[in-house]
Every structure is written in structure tokens, then in C-alpha cells.
Design goal:
Aspartate Aminotransferase, domain 1, 7-stranded mixed β-sheet, alpha/beta, 16% strand, 5-stranded mixed β-sheet, Aspartate Aminotransferase, domain 2, homotetramer
């Protein structure tokens, strides 16, 4: 039986706001009509605000964030180029894997899962690279598998300290639009995101913002590419027309999503993600459990990976949530399979939804045999939310009887 | 800021399932096309199952439950007819008011709010009515204002015990489809419901099921009527065509809603409403509060009216819920304004949604100064739901990593 | 097989614009929330613009136009009141029938179907009514069954010429929002419409605008009423709350519909209806057929009732349209059944849609044996539309290749 | 002003059926839930029926048909491989361009635009290729730019006649699902399509069906690839899970689309496309114009590219259609820009819609100065459709009055 709302707490795809769903429900239209750019051109301009860039160029690919990863690499590097990467979760792992398959020579630093980009080690290796063999430095801003947010500003400082000219690639798929990200200020050259996280859309768009420096590097890039090539796609942000049929429906959704984002305010959204995440973390700690993210500085505001007690299989927690309580939690992936379950808390979300997630997780944990106290996590989060909201009070309105 | 789901816990209109919303999103169609009855005729047949009647005739009015009340009265009674009614909440009050305004002579029994139809008193008065002056007996099956469910089967027994031929009118707006209701078995003559409660649709349909006996009485009824007249509308359930433009969109929604109802099973739905309501009641009692419904026999499975502590204004609880936590609770109406707030728990609902309601209510109560313990209601309900669901276990499925 | 668009050319319900469909696809909400009036209050204000009234009060009933008819009568008149009506089509017939059933004494003038309100005869009878026995005068502005538009301004003149104080009731269901209608200027006291015609919504709202004079008359009205009573509903236009659950979904649709109307401009819409209708009439005349509306002054801009050749059954034309060409035409009703078929041309419509209607009608006529030339009606309408549009040219834009 | 339906007659994206739009309007869901494959696995199985293959493996990429082209090449060939292609329109041109950019050595036969794949020349070159240097033969089944359908069965015969082992690649983007295509019977190794044509969905899916022979070739392919790699994606058709977030919304739409296709019957759809296209061609010839497709054997049933008179600029025709008549026609691309305009007639379409296209085109042509007779094309098409439909008659049904 499937009554009521499904409680979706995976860290993407995220809940789609009603306004966005409505906006996507359109009849089809001619993507070569003279007024088509009235839809598309403002999207490019507005996405730049989300990336916090003024000088970047935005590419919108029909595809996924993975496609945008590939676009970033194949358009600016060459086979055999040396790149500096670090691996501390399933998604940073997959990016390393892609770089290798596309023919890069990856200098990969393995870090314990639960930590993030090793900024000091980056700085050391960049400093050692006197001949400038490293063409690019990669940073996974938010590792979705472990709930770890890395210090991208720190990576920029490491590059600057070493006076190193490498391009800076950032995977912002599960951060951009939810966690503070500043493309220009941090000197990011290629910033990748997707539609299905902070942008609150279905999957289907891989979005890339490219710095002027990266566009220069593109001129030297000789990798084979076609679907993802900048050459074909670059004009889209100035003409509003696409080289192949664009997913018009998603573009209408993107319009609605950006409208919601600017209406709430990007910085307010970032603050809200912190507030909501903090409530979840209060709950986790009230259970007596800990996050996979080892230190507070790594805590992610979009996803919490929660380590279950040693005698519990996290897969049972997740299965209980899904089959008993209509709740989808994220699984532990690869190395942490069975050891963690994840609560995604990003996108179109509010306090009571987070309490529902905690309430459902408590039952799922208890059903799996974990010794967490019923209601304890909910209570801790409630008190946090009450205090936060009370600090921001609107005058009371009394309802009509 | 309006992020995430609005948590709707008023006792109607209820949450609309996605499948129903989708079904209503249709282009317009010709309501006189030869295949139009393929949509409409099965609706009449299927609604009979929801009323649990085989011999009744169903009328679907563009309007509301209030309109169906009026249809019931104006088609089967005459001005000056004496009717037996009871009043113990805002909706039974309004029905009495309508009967009076339509020219009936109402023998009205006022009962304390928190109790239901006074079956024994009904039986006494019916027994006293040797001349059969009482033409109809009215029962509000579920008084939405106080969360009180009455004993309709008992009213039938009272009629039978008195050997009285009066028609039995039942307001089932907030019970039918959610709480056990048996038109034929209980000898109900006019059963009223609306689209926006257990049928999980927007408001817009007043639905009436009429017994053969009531159709006989109709022949003697001389009240002016037109829009709601049986004469014009009666053919619709056999031809599938309507005397004026029907709300086709809602009829498509009704199709989807009935499909959901039969897919889950009406009796399973009734059991689910009990299970969900019981969880809410566990929560209320864990807070140390009590229901407006005075005894367990009156407890409603579709709405709980919760009495706040004496020093608290329930309007503040409701205002907190709405403005701080995006949660809509029902207000106390009329006599109980300020003394109760209501949690509607009917329609398309599941356990975690009820926990969200309790979590939100706890915060709203505490913000209003009530001394309820954070997490206490949630914990009590969680344990009830866990036990109930565990008793019904499906084999576990482990999610893909 | 049901491929592609169904071509809906009945005179209501009309095609729903995509923007309106989207707007109705909402999750349910609390109709007693403090911000609910933000949705509802502007609707009342904006509907007044559609009625072209500044002093009228608007009532929105969950129901249909028929319900609004009943509301108009039962709230302002009394049983036994004499009223002046005329009958020249199925809908004016039904209104007479309602008036009689609600207990009025109807002075009914039967006019040949194909003509409209007999203004001179009205003036004569009003002049003869020295004692002021006539309490109200009724006019069907646009008789949907015959495609006849009457002269409401003329009825006002007749009343004024006779110095008669009777209320003026106007059925504007298939005119308001599409054909010029001026409540205040014409001194209309009760103007009725529904959601499913010019307002481009599904059926489900009966809308009534009431003059100050009619509100005065209301104070003397003693008819039984409840669902449709002004007493309960009157506050809605000032508080934004409804006495029973309003059809929130339709209200959101109404918001979108009004936005479209004001965006196009009401007078532009009226001009467009003339332009589109005129094209259809050019087509009809090119076929060598004639309209049911006997003279040009009666021609309706929302629906054309077309008289088929004597040896043809119009029902076959309609059946051909529906079963062969996925096109819904309106049937001839009652007296003109089999003699006319109707093309509705109102609401969300453009030139090419009208050409599609004509093309489909030509085939349906020819299949039924009518000797109309293939393409002839289309050609005549094309030339009209080309000339009309060319007179209104925008500079050409060339599409991207 | 934008009233009424936009008439979309570009050859893709095509009109989306209401049922498909509804199906896509879903809340988001967990793509790693244990029951997710209940949605996805049947899609793979059912797409095989659309490709008419039993042994093929289907890949569904978030992307476009262009992406599926790239997937086909980069997974089965190697840089420097020689391939045989032909070029006779913008889309076959772009495929050649892609092959070159991905590093293939293209043996390209240029054919006059208006003709199709030169089967005899293919056979000659294959016969000459004694060393088997040609690794693959490419055929654009339906060249959307010129409205030319090629003889894929003939290409197979050419391969067989030459006894040549090359892989056969077919671009079926604008044919599959609308024009007869038989993967297994014709020995096609890589068949490419997209969501936005015969599948009646928005753009966003690139779909590829791969023969067993092509999967063998894949093992020898060493091109860099990641996003489009078979390695990562191959498991999806057996597990139902995707390597990266799938566009769940479109997958729901695909489910609805496939249901519609099988409900109508694929062969019935192919016949309908022929019937509708033939009507359009009757219209074109009645205008005294000719198709870009030089001979009847090349005529496409999904798109007609119509050559305008020498003294007319086709861009004006298209601009007239769009700005005056809310109609989107396809532009002439590249070599035929200004010389042709295109009417797409594929997907969710019926006879009266095609008549609307012709009516609109007639006006647009006349406004541009072309000497075509008003109504002439419509009349010719009407007579064709009438005869075709009459041959298929259902017993008449008469509508309710």
C-alpha cells in the first residue's frame, strides 16, 4: 500500500517544488522559433549568479552531472596530461576513474573516507611541481557518499601559495545552490553541477561554468569530443539556440527553479541548508551516533552520512525505512556499504520534513536493533529549530475560525 | 519563505494523491459525446461500493457537501415537516440551521460538545411519536468540529425499536470512505458526502446516495428546487449524461480516486485510518492532554480535536504551526474556539506524515507556552506504529548501492 | 484510435489554456489560513472588471451557471412574483422552466428560434404594467442553442422608456468575457456566468454579479434558500473566506484565466471573438448554408448554429465529426435537433483552429451527403483571416536555421 | 497575443500526448530503491519491440539522439577506422562531421540533396574493399532536412551481396516508431533514436539498440569514452539501475508513450503516418509545388520538405506561419535554406491537424507572394482523408442532445 507522501531523503534527486513541476508541464515548442531565446538566454545569465561568477561562461548539456564532468575534462585537457586529484568517497573515486579512462595521468591522493580534500598535501605537491607538469587540480566540493564538504577556497590558496598555473576543477554537483560556492572569488576554472540537487529539478541537465582561463586552455585541447564539445555548444549562451534539440521542458523547469532561488535569496538558501542540517546533526548526536564526516569542519549541509552501531547493518535501516515507513534514505556506497546510511537534506525542504526524516530514521534504526531512544533525535532537532525560528519571528497571525 | 511541503492537517480538504492530480490535468472534452458515459457510468456504480449500498441511487452534484445536504432535504421533505436532529458541534449546528431555513420544524436535541448523537433520547422521542409526525431523523456521523463519531447503527436500532418509519439522513462528509459506513445494512435513506475528504479530491462535488424508500418519499415532496432537483439529475446515473455541464475534470479525478480506493481496499483504508488515528491519540495522551471527544467510543478516526491547557490559547498553537512550521491545523470553531486545535488525519496519509504532524504540534504547543515534553508525543506514536507495522511485515528488501 | 488533439468546438466547455491547466495543478491548501484571502480577494475585484461593473457585488458559487441562475432568483424574488421572460432556444427555455419551478409567475413570450429577446414587445408589456406587477425582466444575452445574441442595452432602454422599476436579470453564461457586456452601463441587476465558457476553465463555478438595487431587493426576498443564499456567501468578497469549502483548485485556475484575460485585454478579446466568428460565418456562407440566427444583428460571436440542407440529418454531421475526425461539434437541441449543428468559437482559440473546425465540418457534411464544395469554407475563411491579420502586421522575424 | 493552441509542425520535437505529459508530472523518487526496476526493466524490453529486435541490447542515455550517435561510434570503433558514409542533408552531414571529429577516416559519398543513401555505390565500394578496411557502413534512414527516406534493407543487401562484414549503423532518429524499421530483419548493428520524435516525448533521451555483433566489436574498441561507455551502462538493461542519476521523469513519460504505441499498434502507427503524410503530399501537389525529395521512393512519411517557387523566400513563409498564424514549420537548413520549408507530420497527430497545417501553410505561402490557390491544398487532402477513413468505417454513433 502506498498512501500519502513518499518521504524522499536521498541526497539527490531531490524533491521538486510544485511550482517547478507545474512549469515543466508544457506543450512542446519549436526550439528554432525566433522567440525561443526569450526562454533560454536569461537562464544562462541567471545560472551565472548561482555559480557566483561574472566572467564565466555557462554550458547547459542535456545529460547529467557526470556528462558535465566529461565536458570539463575533454574540452580543456589533453591525453597524457598530469592532474592532481584526491579520493575520499564514491564520487571522488568515480571522477578519478573518469580522468584515467579519458587518458589523463592522475596523481591521486587517497584520503580516509570521512575527510576531504587534503589541502596541505595539494600545496606540497604543487610546490614540488617546478616544471608545471600538473595541468589541473581537481576538488570534490561536497562528497555525497560521506557527507564531507571540502575547502575549495583553501585549494585556491594552495595554488596561489605555490604560484601554480594549473586549472582548478570543482565538482559542485551536491553543493552549488545549497552550500556556499564562489566561482570567481575562489578562482575556480571549471565548476560542474547537475539539475537534480540544489536546482530542484529532475535529472537531465549537466551544467558547467567555465572561466576565461579555461576557455583559453580549450584552444590547446585536442581530445576527441563532439556531443560535449565547447565548439558546438558555446554559442548557445549568446544566441539562445542549441546545436541539437534541447530539453525544453527542463529549461522551463529551470526557469521556475531559478525564480524560486532568487525569490528566497541564494544566501538565505545557504543559511537554511545550514539550519536544517544542524537540526539533523543534533538528532544524530542525541541518538548517540556519529557522522562519517570525521570533524565538524567537514560536515556537509546537504547530506549527513550516519555511522550505525557496529552490530547493525545499515542496509537493514534503509530497507526498514523504505518498506515500512515509505522513506528513502541514501545507502552507504562501496567502502562504507552497510556501515552508513545517509539523510539527504537539500533542495526544497523545511524543518518539519527534517523532523519526519529523523522520526522515520529512529523507527528504522530501532527496528534494525539499534539502541537509540524513541523520539530522542526528534526532540533534539525540535529544540534547535524552535530556537532558530524564534530568533527570526514574524508577528503572529491568527487563523479564521 | 515557503520551502518544501506544506503540512496539511486540516480535516479537509485533504491531501490530493499525485495520481489524482495527474488524472485531473486533462484537456476539456465534450460532455455530450457518445462515449462520455464510459467515463461517468462506472463512477456511479463505484460510488455505491463506497457507500456500501446496492439499492441506493447516487447523485453527483457540482457543488459541495453542503449542497448535497440541501439536495437531500429539498427533494424528500416538505415545508413544515417535523424532523429530529441533534447538535453537538459546528457542523451538526449548521445542518440544523439549514433545516430550519428550508422550512422544516426541527426537534433539536442539544448535546454537550464532545459527545455524539444521543441514541437513547432519539429512541425515546421516536417511541413517543405515536402519530408519526417525525418525518426524518438526522445524524451527523462524524462531527468534524469536535472529532466525535456517532453510532449510526444505533440510530437505526432506535428507529427499528420504535417501529418508526421516519427517513434516516446521515451526514457522512468526513466519515464516508474513511470510517466504517454501511448504507444498506444500517438502513440509511440519505447519505451525504463531498469530494474533499475521504475521496481525496478538491472540493467541488456534493455526493448523495438515496435509498429506494427516499425515492418514494421524493414523489410526495413539493419543495421548490431546481439545481438540486432529483427530477433533472436522476437520469444521470443511468444515461451518464448530466442536465448541466458537469465538472469533467473532477470526474476524472474521482475515477483515479476510486481506483486508488479499490486498489487499497475500502476496509483496509478504514483500518489504516484507525491505525493512524490511534498513533495521534497516543501522542496526545503522552503530552498529558485530552481530546474534545469525551469518551473512547466517540473518538474519531478522521480528526482529533485536542483540548489545550487552560492557560493556553489554541489559536496561538495554530498560528505557530502555520507561520513557523508550515503546518495547517484545524481551528476550534464556535464554542470551542481557542480551546481546541484539530489534527485532521484522513485521506492520503501515512505514519510518518502523522509523526510530522505531532512533531510540528509539539513545537507549536511549546512555543505557545504549553508544558508538553519535546518528542514525547512523537515517541509514543512511533512505538505504536512500529508495533502495528511489525505485525504486518513484508520480507526485507535491501536497496541497490 | 485516438491520436493527436481532439478538436473541441462545442460552445462550452471550452479549451483550457495550458497556463490555466498548470495553475490548477496544485497541492491542496487550508482554506482558513490567514493568507488564503491573498488568493481569493483579488478574484472578486478582477471579476468585476470582466462584468464591467464598479458597484456590483460578485458571488462565486461552487456549482454551475445553472446554480447561479437559481441563486439570482431565489435571493431577490418571492414566490408568486410576476416576471417577464422570452423563450427562443433551449437555454432560455430552461431558464423559464426554472423560474416556474421556483414558484414565479412567468409572463413568457415565445419567439421563433433564430431570433432573440423581443425588445419592442418587452417595452410594450412593461408600459402596460401600470401597477408594477412585473418584478423582474429576464434576458438571455447569448442563446447558445441557436447562436443568437440579444440586445441587452435595448432591454434597458425598454425598461427606461417604460419608467419601469423591475430588476434586470441577464444570462451571460456564453457571452461574458467573449461578447461585449456592460453591467453598469446597461443597468443589469443580476448577471450570471459560469467558469466553462469565456473564462476558459472547467465547469464548477457559477458566478453572479449583483447590483446594489438587487441587494436591496434581496432584503425583501423570503424564498427558502441556503446553499445559494446571499446571506452566507456575501461576506466572501470582503473577507476572502467561504462559508463552505471552496473549490480552491478552480480558484487558482481562475487567477490564471483572469491574468490571461487582462494580458490580452478584454476589449481585444471581444474583437478577436468577432474576427474568429466572422471567419466561420464566411465559411458557412461559402458552403451555401445559412445560420439559424435569422438576421445579422442576431449573429453570435461565440457560437454559430448552422442549418443543414433539408435532406441531411445534422446528427450525422456531428457523428461524422466525432467518430471520423476527432472533432466535437455542438448538437441541435430540442426543436432544432437534426436541423442544426453548432460550431463553438469562444475562449482560447485562434484562426488556424477555426480553419480546422471548418475543414472538419466540410468533410463531415460531405460524408453526410451535403453538397458543399471541399475546401470552399476554408478558403473563404482564410481570405478573411489573412486580410484581418495583415491589417495588424508585426514586422517579420526570420527563424533560426 | 497567444491564444489557443500553437500549431507545431516541425519534424521534432513533436507534440506530446496529454497522457504522456500527465505521466511525467511525478514527484521525484529514489533511483536506487528496490522497486525502481519495476519502472525501468520493462522499458528496455518494450523498446526492443519498437526497434523490432529480439537479440539487440538497448541503451538509454540521458542526452539526445546526437549523444546516441556518439555512443554508437565511440563504443564499437577505433580511431583511424575507415567507414563508409553518405551525405545528402544537414543531419547526414552532421553525422559525417562527428565521425571525422571522433577520429574516423570517412569515405563519404556526397549525393544530391533530395536523394538518399546511394545503395548501388555502397555495394560497389564494399565489393571493392577486398581487405575489409571498411569497418562500418552508415545510413541515415530518414534525412529530416530534406524529407528523404532511404532504403536500409537495400544497404543490408549491398553488404550481403559484397559479403562484407562491416557493421551497419543506422540513424533512425526521425523514423523509428513512425516509419517501418526492422533491426533484426535488416541486420542493423547500431540503431539510434531519440525521445522527441516518434516516441512523442520531450528531448532528453538518446536511445541506442546494439546487435550482438556490435557488442563483440565493442570488445576491440579502444576509444576513450566514459559518459557514453557501454561498460558502465550495459548493466542497466538487466538490473534496471543506472550508473548515474537517470531522468526518471522522462522514463515515466516513456512508459506512457510505449503504452500508447502498443495500444495503437506499431504497424497501425506506421500506416497512419503514411496516410497522414500522403494527405499532406496531395495538398502540396494541389498547390503546384514539389517536394525536395526527388522521387516518390524517397518520400518521407514523417516530414515533407516543400520547395517554394523560385521567386519566394521560404524563410518568409515560415516567419508568416509563426508570427501570423501561430504555426511552427521547419526551416530549410544549410544548402536549402530559403528554398524549402518543412511540415513535420509525425508523432501524436491526426487528419484534422494536418489540414490545419495545410491551411496555415496556404495562408503563409500566399502572404509571401506564392501563387497557390486558397483552400486548394486543404481540399485535396480532405478528399484523400475522407476516402481513407471511409474505407475504415465504424458504425455511426449519434450524440446526446
Amino acid at each position: 500500500m502506498k498512501n500519502g507522501t513518499t518521504h524522499l531523503f536521498v541526497p539527490g534527486p531531490t524533491n521538486i517544488p510544485d511550482a517547478v513541476r507545474r512549469a515543466m508541464n508544457v506543450s512542446m515548442q519549436d526550439m528554432r522559433a525566433p522567440d525561443y531565446p526569450e526562454l533560454t538566454l536569461p537562464l544562462f545569465a541567471d545560472l551565472k549568479k548561482v555559480f557566483k561568477t561574472e566572467t564565466g561562461t555557462v554550458f547547459i548539456y542535456p545529460g547529467s552531472g557526470t556528462g558535465a564532468w566529461e565536458a570539463a575534462i575533454s574540452n580543456t585537457l589533453n591525453r597524457g596530461d598530469r592532474v592532481l586529484m584526491s579520493r575520499f568517497g564514491q564520487f571522488s573515486h568515480l571522477w578519478v576513474d573518469m580522468a584515467q579512462r579519458l587518458g589523463l595521468e592522475v596523481d591521486c591522493i587517497d584520503v580516509e573516507w570521512g575527510e576531504g580534500v587534503p589541502v596541505e598535501e595539494y600545496q606540497r605537491r604543487l610546490g614540488d611541481d617546478r616544471q608545471g607538469r600538473i595541468k589541473a587540480v581537481f576538488a570534490t566540493h561536497n562528497e555525497t557518499a560521506t557527507g564531507v564538504t571540502s575547502d575549495v577556497a583553501g585549494v585556491r590558496k594552495a595554488l596561489d601559495a605555490a604560484g601554480h598555473p594549473a586549472l582548478l576543477f570543482v565538482d559542485g554537483v551536491s553543493s552549488i545552490g545549497s552550500i556556499d560556492f564562489r566561482m570567481d572569488e575562489w578562482g575556480v576554472d571549471l565548476a560542474v553541477t547537475g539539475s537534480q540537487k540544489g536546482l530542484m529539478l529532475p535529472a537531465g541537465l549537466g551544467i558547467l561554468s567555465v572561466s576565461e582561463k579555461a576557455l583559453e586552455a580549450h584552444k590547446q585541447s585536442r581530445m576527441e569530443r563532439c556531443y560535449f564539445s565547447f565548439e558546438d555548444m558555446k554559442a548557445s549562451s549568446t544566441t539562445g539556440f542549441f546545436p541539437y534539440t534541447p530539453p525544453t521542458q527542463l529549461l522551463h523547469g529551470l526557469r521556475a527553479s531559478l525564480d524560486l532561488i532568487f525569490s528566497e535569496g541564494l544566501d538565505n538558501i545557504i543559511a537554511r541548508h545550514h539550519r536544517l542540517a544542524e537540526g539533523v546533526r543534533h538528532g544524530v548526536h542525541a541518538w548517540g551516533l556519529r557522522l562519517c564526516a570525521k570533524e565538524e569542519k567537514w560536515w556537509s549541509n546537504t547530506v549527513s552520512a550516519i555511522v550505525v552501531p557496529d552490530d547493525i547493518d545499515a542496509r537493514h535501516v534503509i530497507a526498514n525505512g523504505y518498506s515500512r515507513y515509505r522513506t528513502s534514505f541514501g545507502a552507504g556506497l562501496s567502502k562504507v556499504a552497510g556501515r552508513v546510511f545517509r539523510i539527504g537534506h537539500l533542495g526544497d525542504l523545511n524543518e518539519v520534513m527534517c523532523l519526519a526524516a529523523l522520526a522515520s530514521a529512529e523507527m528504522s534504526l530501532r527496528d534494525a536493533g539499534a539502541k537509540v531512544e524513541a523520539g530522542s533525535g526528534v526532540a533534539a532537532a525540535q529544540e534547535w529549530y524552535r530556537a532558530e525560528i524564534a530568533g527570526n519571528l514574524q508577528p503572529l497571525q491568527v487563523q479564521a475560525a
